Amino acid sequence: MSLDPLTFNTKSDKEITTTLQIFTEIKEIILVETGIVVSIKNFKPPVITFTVDSSPAASNLNLHKSLIIQKLKKYNITKIRIITH
Hints:
five-stranded mixed β-sheet, alpha+beta
């Protein structure tokens, strides 16, 4: 499944947590949700790793998406491709 640049809709459109970790070695972004690992490729490192959470505790989806997009823009990640495993 291909998505437009900086688009973060997953199949189930689960809520995204604010937990962001930045690494310099890892060469892919991984979305971890219940039972599914989503890899986002085609970008420049460093990498942002974040979690998709179905918990109601992750309540502000728009804010979380905004933070992630902000981080991706900071590191010149302009195009993503989402592959479900």
